[in-house]
Description:
Elements: H1 2-11, H2 18-30, H3 35-45, H4 49-57, E1 70-75, H5 78-82, H6 85-96, E2 109-114, E3 126-128, E4 131-133, H7 138-146
Parallel strand pairs: 1-2
Antiparallel strand pairs: 1-3, 3-4
Helix pairs in contact: 1-2, 1-3, 3-4, 6-7
The chain binds FE2/S2 (inorganic) cluster.
The site of FE2/S2 (inorganic) cluster has 12 residues, from helix 5.
Amino acid sequence: MEEKVLQIINKHKNKDSKLLAILHDVQDEFGYIPEEAIKTIAKELGMKKGEVYDAASFYSFFRFKPEGKHEVMICDCIVCHIKGSERIIERIEKEFGVKMGETTKDGKFTFKIVEGLGHCEHSPVMMIDGKIYGDLTPDKVVEILRGCQ
Ligand code: FES
């Protein structure tokens, strides 16, 4: 990993906003920003690890944990909540052995709760990799997720 991070750092060596560019490329390469990469970046740019981390965590699009192959967003806003999102969340947590915000052990899914997916007429609603699924029941959610490759 260090070698790849060093290549990325060298690519951006002479740029003004190199830290952000490096962080972007590291995330593109690994899917997130590993602790080890923060250490290498800090060392090479003459910064403290905490400074690199602070700069990166200012931006919500940088991730510090690996994400699953599929991003699953469960809407828990008011309409979806009234129509049963809580039961869906409970079922997912039981069925896949995770809490919301976590990734399954096999790396297949990362589950997130979001506030409003804009399809209230089909609530409860979830989104998998950008695709909306509505009129859900706990059984239907498990069936859809089990069908994901
Ligand atoms: S409340 Fe969930 S999509 Fe509107």
